[in-house]
Amino acid sequence: MATVLLSQHSSNPLEVGSSDARNKAYHQEYISAQNTNGHFTLTSEDGHHGLDRPEMVQYHNHLARLYSKQGVVPSTIKRKPHPDELPVVNFDESMEYADDMHFETPHDMGTLDDDDADEEDVDADGETDEEKTLFLKPPEEQQEIQLEIANLSNAVPSLSEDYAIIDRLGTGTFSSVYKAVDLAYHSKWDNTAWHGSHPPISSAHYQSVPYHPGSKVFVAIKRIYVTSNPERIRNEISIMEDCRGCRHTSQLITAFRHRDQVVAIMPYSRNEDFRDYYKDLSMAGIKAYFRCMFRSLRDIHARGIIHRDVKPANFLFDPRTGIGAMCDFGLASRMDGSTPVHGACLHTSATREHPHGKIRGRNEYDVDLLKKMQKEARQKSSWPSDRVGYPDKDTRPLSKANRAGTRGFRAPEVLLKCSQQTGAIDVWSAGMILLFFLTGKFPLLQSSDDIEALMEIATIVGRQKMEKTAILHSRTFATNVPSISQEGMSWREFVEKQNPNIFKPRTPDPRYYPYNNFVTHNTPGTSSHPPPSSSSSYSYRQPSSSRSRSTTPTPIRADIPAPPTTDSHRADVEAAFSLLAEVMHPESTRRITPRGALYHPFLADPSEPEDDELFPHPFGEGVCGKWHFVDPVTEEQCVIVHDGGKEQARRVVAGEGMAIGSWPCEFHRKESEFDYEVSTLIGQTKHIYTMALDWTMLDARHHPIPLRDETTIMSTDRDSQVEFSLTIPDAPPSGTAATGGNGGVKRMKERGRLWMTNQRLIFITPKDDKMKPSFESLSVPLDAVLSSKFEQPYFGANYLVLDVKPSTGGGLTDGTSIEIRFYDRGLFEFVSVLEKTRERLVFMRRQAMEDDENLPAYTSSGSAAGSSTSYADTPPGYDA
């Protein structure tokens, strides 16, 4: 299924859309200059009065001579009239469509200090740009698309009630995809299931961030053609539903049928054409690409699903943010664990321990028969060309296997008609994409049939490896083509031949991650429309966030990584070669798994949590899997929850009830059954878990679960006694971050309860099934509070301002501030206790550090010579 989702967004600063934050910055600078110089600021149309310098006189004399040669004498240059001097024109006489006109804001309005209004303007302009992409296309194409949209609206009348279709994103053999605005996102649908619950430290967290109330939500509508096989349609919808919650995977929002028309709704994902960036993307960008891809494949394969059509067109990657999402499951299939009667492979099917299968024991197949087959194949390879071919009437048993895929991306086992295919075929396809990046050539293999495709691979890996690969699948490989050598070449040699400059660092492209000079759009998940999503094409449940908006000129990033050195680039290339050899191994059982690829030195990042801690388990697995089950009658997924001390079964839909890493699912994070386990777990995890927005562990009473050695000092007793106001700067992406912002801020305010312990401040909003708060909880370690300031305004209640140092990936950024207001007389007592607790905590931490220092050990005077374990010089006055 070759469906293409494309969205063109200019990266040229001279071609940015009217909504780009930079235009706003330029406008503000212009207004500021006007306010400084007055309304009579000189322009290119003004005279040179007051500038009668020799250089200017010489310049204008040159212009006079230039124009005189053309028979044109420039007229006297006059001053541009003051706006008040302009004649009044009645525009109503010449405007038939006044509503379609856009009126600019008067210059005097540019000096108003209205941050909220400016923020709304930025978002509104961005949404307007997304809605008007159709009008950037040629008139003929616009007319064609408008006819298609009208046809779809007539074929599925109910579609227009909830979605406003505004453009076509792409067309394929079996479907077309359109961009639309979800008119009922905020008022009609419960979106928690497809948003998922990825934690803030996950690269897929953007998928779980709900859209800001009132914002426009863009979606992709996939219209599956009526000529498609009904079973194919059912299979695609079913698989997409099972892939809900998978990281960096296009989520299925909903799907429905009207007569013979079937449509599927997915999040809209920004992306760029692979051909536009694969030669320019830096090593850091390539790593971001494959981290997203292999996280998606790991989650998909864990659910027993093979994508089968992994290729650049089906991976929606935005090179500006480093986020990508897998899409188009039209060819996807489920792994079959059964063993065929004829032509069984010499390897097993996929299992939990061996995702790509393993070679069977020698007692499970006929060794003598295999040796005989190999001998015959090698004899045939020496035959002359007139004896090459296959019988006109072939009486051999017909081999049946799934051969779906795109030419140039199919693995050897697919071409050899393996009957027990695993997710290894997707890993091979990912390896082909890595080849494109390393060689700088796309495409590479362009065979017209299976035999030719096998010969292309054999030309590289050699005859010996192809024979061994064929035997693994109960096949033989025979060829008399002299150019295919016995040993072949390594993938490294192949790349170096195709790209002799592979070890020369690429010049960082300021358009792409992580060297973006300007951040041209909002952080995925916090903007008014979804990202390409990449890490998390996106959605979430647990965390929530308001839109990121900029009211100031978009800054030049101060944390742009330094360009790679020759040594660092060589190290990256060497690691890439190592990974390439493992993902392109011709034997599927020896090919690296997606999880293994994520832990490979090329993709592993020591500064980030291990992937196992962020892996979304399939339903029924994970730490709380014993409380999950499938109803044997209705086949519905259910979880057992405790309510008032009683066990109750609750039905869940696809995407709900997923345990993340070592954490329980959203239904059991508040279960007292897990209090001890979770408390122990938190105490053993990194500091990152203790400071995060919307990731506080709660018990059945909706109270925070204490950390190890944590005790409560004071707490409020009413749900709305305290107000927390957060101001979170939207930081640009760092060298290792998955996403970045646009230099603005997001502000959130909620009422709830406050706990102060000997380790942290914990704020929790009350339960509300009707309205979801902007954020549900916040945990702040006391040693992360940089400063506190007690404010006593002339008007209004007193409040406390805290500046905090966030943990990486916890949902907060550098410069975050918190305002705390009490709705009773408890603020003074709280401030006093907070300062004393902080001081004691800092003192105890410092004392512990001093006690834990490894002081040098010295031997006594009676010790044997040379037995000292000291690693320091002998202290003055000490006689050894």
Task: Furnish the topology, listing elements before pairings.
Elements: H1 21-37, H2 54-69, H3 115-131, H4 139-155, H5 159-162, E1 163-171, E2 175-182, H6 192-195, E3 218-224, H7 230-242, E4 254-258, E5 261-267, H8 274-277, H9 283-302, E6 305-306, E7 315-318, E8 323-326, E9 333-334, H10 367-381, H11 412-415, H12 424-439, H13 450-461, H14 463-472, H15 491-498, H16 566-583, H17 594-598, E10 628-630, E11 637-643, E12 646-651, H18 675-684, E13 712-715, E14 722-729, E15 745-757, E16 760-764, E17 777-781, E18 785-791, E19 799-804, E20 817-822, H19 827-852
Helix pairs in contact: 9-12, 12-16, 13-14
Keywords:
serine/threonine-protein kinase, Kinase-like_dom_sf, globular, alpha+beta, eight-stranded antiparallel beta sheet, Transferase(Phosphotransferase), domain 1, disordered C terminus, 880 residues, PH-domain like
Give a brief description.
One of its GO terms (cellular component) is nucleus. This protein has 880 residues and is of the alpha+beta class. The protein contains 19 helices and 20 strands.
